[in-house]
């Protein structure tokens, strides 16, 4: 296995600025927001809005760190590449395989959620059928070319954005009494036990579910190797994150809390849809459920794209089988795509065997894996900045408040791990996290041992009288690994 880093030139820069903007806007507007936000509301009540602001600020700082490195090194390997380059090969191996794993599990989550959302129209239908149809359609789209992925993601994200804005506007009209109905007013924010009815403890615990909703946002980094003019377009896309936090998360969840008592929201269904049904706006609820389903497919689309690029980057750098380095003439990592889709298709079987039991287990696993990725970005950025200082250089797109922001983010992620221990649904993932890291580290060490042993055998078999041939064969051996 090679310890050097390969910057990828096999992919095509087929993503336009508008594609990247919508990937940034839509990558985390999925199951986490439309379904997972119900769990965070039941833990903290209206105070969950402060949780979204806090977690959103942390993720925005992480995105700025990622953006600074992506502008300097716009490659598809993203934070795996940066961990490998600025921390070390083993860090790149763990980070890359962890993000690949995250993409697979998030894809399975979104396929599972799609079946749950279909229950709105067809209660009790087989979820595995929905998962299978969605898997085939999205895989087919990604098999065309990167522009097809970008175009589909653009329009599905546009649907999510427009629908959320429309719901926020409709909600404010209902709150203020614009139209034939009397004003609902603002009293639901404090009329049912106060603004923070569960106290500081409930608010702290809600940060776990709240932070999960931001998980897909860093997938924009894996698009850096295929976006046109990355120096200009990456900063524009990342700067939109703070806009998304304010409008879509705080605005969308805030409207729900204004329209409906927080203690009557069901954590197992989409709170957005259930609130509209409760208000008697059935037509809007039907339309919104279409949007919620599209949101799940949008995130699955992004994970299909992102996971394949990460697997190919690992293969390019000797950290995955070279079989996955292959791209078609259109710059498509076909083998990586098909392999990942096959694994995500496991959601079809799991939904057949365990329908209704997967969502929260998958959410817990995903959050634990995401903490690894976010932490790797913060540490890589510290090393990146240190290298720039040694070389007397500065970045074209600087992340604010570094290094203080880096340490603040790492402390927040450590707090999340502590809080996960208090939540039964997340506890199993907390215990599995160190085992997962140890497993990846052991695989890395095993590959390193195999490489050194192979190099030694080649050296011993080389003719002693031909040092030049020995050196040449050793070099070929290293490159092939």
Please render the helix and strand layout as text.
Layout: H1 17-26, H2 31-34, H3 37-44, H4 48-72, H5 78-86, H6 89-118, H7 127-142, H8 146-176, H9 199-212, H10 230-259, H11 271-278, H12 282-316, H13 334-344, H14 346-353, H15 359-391, H16 404-420, H17 424-461, H18 467-480
Number of beta-strand segments = 0
Rg from C-alpha positions? 23 Å
CATH topology: Amino acid/polyamine transporter I
Order of helices and strands: HHHHHHHHHHHHHHHHHH
Structural class: mainly alpha
Q: Give average pLDDT, whole number.
A: 81
CATH class: Mainly Alpha
Shape: globular
Please tell me the CATH architecture by its name. Up-down Bundle
- Low-confidence runs (pLDDT<50, min 5 residues)? 1-9, 472-481
Helix content: over 70%
Question: What's the CATH H-level superfamily name?
Answer: Amino acid/polyamine transporter I
Largest sheet: none
N→C terminal distance: 5 Å
Binned strand content: under 5%
Please tally the helical runs, counting DSSP H or I stretches of 4 or more residues: 18
What is the domain total for the residues? Answer: 1
Question: Overview of this structure, please?
Answer:
Keywords: Amino-acid transport, Cell inner membrane, Cell membrane, Membrane, Transmembrane, Transmembrane helix, Transport. It is found in: Cell inner membrane. The protein is 71% helix and 0% strand. The longest helix is centred in the last third of the chain and has 38 residues, at 424-461. It has helices at 17-26, 31-34, 37-44, 48-72, 78-86, 89-118, 127-142, 146-176, 199-212, 230-259, 271-278, 282-316, 334-344, 346-353, 359-391, 404-420, 424-461, 467-480. With 481 residues, it is mostly helical. The protein has a single domain (17-480), classed as Amino acid/polyamine transporter I (Up-down Bundle). Residues 1-9 and 472-481 have low confidence and may be disordered.
């Amino acid at each position: 296995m090679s310890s050097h880093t390969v910057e990828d030139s096999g992919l095509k820069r087929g993503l336009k600025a508008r594609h990247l903007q919508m990937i940034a806007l839509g990558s985390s507007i999925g199951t986490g927001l439309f379904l997972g936000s119900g769990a965070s509301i039941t833990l903290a009540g209206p105070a969950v809005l402060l949780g979204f602001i806090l977690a959103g600020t942390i993720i925005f700082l992480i995105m700025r760190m990622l953006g600074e490195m992506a502008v300097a090194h716009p490659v598809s390997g993203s934070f795996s590449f940066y961990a490998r380059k600025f921390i070390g090969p083993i860090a790149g191996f763990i980070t890359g395989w962890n993000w690949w794993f995250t993409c697979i599990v998030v894809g399975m989550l979104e396929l599972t959620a799609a079946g749950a959302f279909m229950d709105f129209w067809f209660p009790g239908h087989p979820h595995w059928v929905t998962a299978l149809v969605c898997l085939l359609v999205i895989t087919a789209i990604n098999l065309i070319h990167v522009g097809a992925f970008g175009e589909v993601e653009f329009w599905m994200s546009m649907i999510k954005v427009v629908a959320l804005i429309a719901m926020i506007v409709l909600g404010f009209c209902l709150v203020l009494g614009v139209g034939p109905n009397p004003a609902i007013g603002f009293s639901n924010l404090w009329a049912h036990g106060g603004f923070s009815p569960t106290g500081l403890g409930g608010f702290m615990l809600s940060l776990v579910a709240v932070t999960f909703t931001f998980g897909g946002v860093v997938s924009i980094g894996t698009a850096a190797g295929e976006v046109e003019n990355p120096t200009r377009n990456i900063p524009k896309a990342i700067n939109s994150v703070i806009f998304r936090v304010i409008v879509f998360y705080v605005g969308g969840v805030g409207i729900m809390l204004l329209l409906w008592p927080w203690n009557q929201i069901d954590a197992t269904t989409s709170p957005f849809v259930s609130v509209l049904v409760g208000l008697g706006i059935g037509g809007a609820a039907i339309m919104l459920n279409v949007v919620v389903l599209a949101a799940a497919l949008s995130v699955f689309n992004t994970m299909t794209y992102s996971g394949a690029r990460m697997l190919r980057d690992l293969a390019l750098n000797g950290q995955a089988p070279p079989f996955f380095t292959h791209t078609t003439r259109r710059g498509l990592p076909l083998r990586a795509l098909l392999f990942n889709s096959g694994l995500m298709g496991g959601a079809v079987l799991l939904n057949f065997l365990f329908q209704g039991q997967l969502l929260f287990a998958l959410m817990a696993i995903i959050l634990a894996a995401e903490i690894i990725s976010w932490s790797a970005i913060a540490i890589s950025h510290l090393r990146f900045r240190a290298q720039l200082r040694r070389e007397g250089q500065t970045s074209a797109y600087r992340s604010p408040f570094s290094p203080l922001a880096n340490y603040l983010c790492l402390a927040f992620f450590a707090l999340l791990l502590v809080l996960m221990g208090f939540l039964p649904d997340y506890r199993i993932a907390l215990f599995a996290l160190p085992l997962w890291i140890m497993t990846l580290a052991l695989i890395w060490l095993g590959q390193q041992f195999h490489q050194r042993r192979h190099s030694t055998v080649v050296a011993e078999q080389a003719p002693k009288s031909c040092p030049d041939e020995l050196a040449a064969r050793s070099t070929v051996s290293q490159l092939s690994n």
